[in-house]
Design brief:
single chain, 138 residues, alpha+beta, Immunoglobulin-like, 19% helix, A-crystallin/Hsp20_dom, HSP20-like_chaperone, HSP21-like, Heat shock protein Hsp20, stress response
Length: 138
Amino acid sequence: MIFDPFEEIRRIQERLNRLFEDFERIGPRVVSVEFPVDVIDEGDRIRVVADLPGFNKEDIEIWVEDGDLVIKAERKEEKEEKEANYLRRERRFGKVYRRIALPADVDVENIKASYNNGVLEVIVPKTEKAKKKVIKIE
């Protein structure tokens, strides 16, 4: 028997197509993925900016645990949408999660967060001990 690499590629493609068709039959997919964040050191504070489009403010949770800032958001499927006859469904429902290491000396009690137009901004103040001190060279 002669090995035909093109035939093997065709078989792999058929198997992948069947696999994706199986996923489509499962119905709405629930995903749990990370989302993009910017972490900016602004001297006296750390600013975290996260893209969370499509979430309501009430769907987002923020907390500090073991020296990390944790952001979790969940988008739930509405019941009436479940009955619709979709031709294509790409919008996802589910959870997104991100854990961001913070410097040791932050003021956890005074962290503030705001959410506007799909962008979450978290301000984490530094303690006096953590603020940058410039040392003059003599």
